[in-house]
Amino acid sequence: MKVIFLFIFSPKTVYFCRFCRGFCSRGRGRGRAQGTRWQQGQLKEECQDESEPRGTCMRMCPDRELREREAQKRLHRFEVLPGTEKDRLPRADPARTVKEYSRPAAGKDCVRAHDLRPPSVLLETVCYLIDHVAVSPSLQPWTEVYDFVFDRLRSVRQDMIIQRTSGPECVAVLEKTVRFLIYASYRLRDEPLRLYDPRINDTHLQESLSWLLDCYSHGQHPHQEEMQALGLLYNLGSNRALQHALELPERVREAPAIRLALAVNRAHLERNPVRLLRLARQLDFLQSCALHRHLGACCRDLLLLYSHAYSSRNCRFPLQRLAHILALEESQAAWLCQAHGVTVDREWVVFSKVSYTEAPTKDLRGLHFCELVDSKREAHCCQDHPWMCLRLAIFVDPCIIFPISLKLLIVGGGVF
Amino acid sequence: MAHITINQYLQQVLEAVETRDGAFCGELLSFKHPHVANPRLQLPNPEEKCQQVLEPPYDEMVAAHLRCTYAVSNHDFVEAYRCQTVVVQYPLSRALPIMFAVTLDLRIFANSAEQQLQKKGKGKVGDMLEKAAEQLMSCFRVCASDNRAGIDDSKKWGMLFLINQLFKIYFKINKLHLCKPLIRAIDSSNLKDEYSMAQRVTYKYYVGRKAMFDSDFKLAEEFLSFAFQHCHRSCQRNKRMILIYLLPVKMLLGHMPTHQLLRKYDLMQFAEVTRAVSEGNLLLLNDALAKHETFFIRCGIFLILEKLKVITYRNLFKKVYLLLKTHQLPLDAFLVSLKMMQVEEVDIDEVQCILANLIYMGHIKGYISHQHQKLVVSKQNPFPPLSTVS
């Protein structure tokens, strides 16, 4: 016992620091003691760099990994040099190969600086992934595009974590990641589980979102209002998200996007689905994508409330009116009603307290909120930048400020 | 105490240890005791002196405590916290009076240290408090698993105190889900009604707040009422704190506070809210919530007060019913009343939805006829009293 105490509490605890290649007296890892005091008369060691390794890899994929994956035939088909796909050993296209995510494991080599990408390269990588892979109309099927971009974005975040990145590049990377994952959550909603798992998407989205919101607590950020609003909408009904939004500085809270998101949340809190759906019409495309996973529950709630309020023998409710309130086409509204045990008789809906069923009797994946989501996509494209119509113009501030470095283009031997 | 020498202090500690005087020993290690202000004890390196008088491991523990007083005198709370973590880890700290003193100081230093780091722009919010919570949890585990001693000497008597400390941390770092296992531990304990009233009041206060957060208002009312009634009348500040959370819960269940109560506890922010809700005056309610928004948000009750809107709608619509004196009420009348309250952008569809919600919740007994655009209410007691509606 005594020996252990002496070891832990003696101020002279030292260890070999693998980052500065010297002996340090600091505890390792984030959040540990920031430096123990030496005995009187000696200096306090302040080893700044030892816990913040700086990456030196200036490409999207470190050389070592590129050569390794090329030799082992583990290149993704989006990374292969055009013309070499059918070769026995396809060649990697350095301008399109991106470092993949690898699970950290005990016993693995400690991270080397030339395997890590510095923040500027990380941002360029993300811009490439979004602007040239995610929105590319020629790469199909989109589930495969999603898998590729998802994995590579995860690797970017991994590099950021190891380097303890913060600052504008980190924020920009996270913003683009969040936008991509929100869009994916909408686009792939009807895909089978083997191709897309909404829960995994959600986990990563929430992680990135809370990291991003953490970054926002220091300094000024031009896109903060947009992202806070997206977070609020995606987490509709979460007391925590709502409380966080209410505690934002007034200047931020007064932004139109956040006010609208708060109003939507309030309507949800008051259990007023009519108001909620009406406000939802005012959301733009990406905000609607963020909200859409809650729309089914809102419609269901409305049917529940109306089943109780209109539950009288001769009561009939016009289907057209209901469809309008639910922002669905009449056929879809009728289908939703029937799935919840609500009788539809030609153009009339007959509500009844007893026949409403909570659990839908049919698979609701065919439900399409055209008015509330799909129709906004074109509007979003064309109003901002006409030439973006081909793209999904949700990634509004692409790499105009951070152009993909010329180095990558030259090395790649061509423009993609 | 403020003028004794280091040797005298160490002698007192030695005596306390030898005579097994836990209470006095606890005082000598607590920051509430005046000895911490004594400059003769505030030494950066008291190890040698401690080793001369005390046996190990007491010498290192007391040395850490004295280093802590030194750090506090320099306003270096980060260092103070670090020293205090050393103190907490020693086995002697398991003696209950000492444990109470050192764990309390640990939490307070973690708080101050965080604030200091925040001011310098370093450190993540909640980091130090989480670490303090981990230490407290290990103390808690020692207490909870103490099956050897008899009930009088058992460490289980320390459980509720530690739980209260952990609650305070979890509420501060907003990780309320971590409270659940602690609540379960107390619920299953046979000592739960035997602890001191002070500890039980604190416990019920936090559990009541958690129930509020989980929207379990009946339970919240039960716990918070207990805390309020049993809180000693001299602790005005604590009573006020309990009331801040009890009031919204009671209002949601239909019980409005009197003016005297609000004035007595300096909670006039609730006065206008109360009046607005009982009159069904949505306009006044929105104004009152906006006026004291900062206060309500800071206490975390803003969202609950927003739920009072439903009660306000009910009161407003009841007025409409009383005015029209008929049990077949045109929907238009309700729309007009809402427009008078300057509710923005409300249309007849929304009126129907609000009414549907009130019917579903049992606040109105009746049904809506869409064909006749009327709300048909029951001839008997169409607006049941709020306290009868769950």
Protein model, in words:
Chain A: This is SAC3 domain containing 1. Chain A: InterPro entries: SAC3/GANP/THP3 (IPR045107), SAC3/GANP/THP3_conserved (IPR005062). Chain A: It comes from Scleropages formosus (Asian bonytongue). Chain A: It holds the Pfam family SAC3_GANP. Chain A: Residues 60-345 form the SAC3/GANP/THP3 conserved domain. The complex is a heterodimer of chains A (416) and B (390). Chain A has 416 residues and is mainly α. Chain A folds into three domains: 13-50, no CATH class; 53-101 and 113-219, no CATH class; 222-416, Serine Threonine Protein Phosphatase 5, Tetratricopeptide repeat, CATH 1.25.40.990. Helix content of chain A is 49%, strand content 3%. Chain A contains 16 helices and five strands. Chain A has a three-stranded antiparallel beta sheet with strand order 3-5-4. In chain A, helix 3 packs antiparallel against helix 4, helix 5 (168-187) runs antiparallel to helix 6 (198-216) and helix 5 (168-187) crosses helix 12 (285-309). Helices cover 64% and strands 3% of the residues of chain B. Chain B has helices at 6-18, 22-28, 47-53, 58-73, 77-89, 96-120, 127-144, 159-172, 179-187, 197-213, 217-230, 236-252, 259-264, 269-279, 282-291, 293-299, 302-306, 308-324, 331-340, 348-361; strands at residues 328-330, 366-369, 374-377. In chain B, strands 1-3-2 form a three-stranded antiparallel beta sheet. In chain B, strand 2 (366-369) and strand 3 (374-377) form a beta hairpin. In chain B, helix 3 packs antiparallel against helix 4 (58-73) and helix 8 (159-172) packs parallel to helix 10 (197-213). The longest helix of chain B is centred in the first third of the chain and has 25 residues, at 96-120. Chain B is elongated and about 95 Å long. Classes of the chains: A mainly alpha (416), B mainly alpha (390).
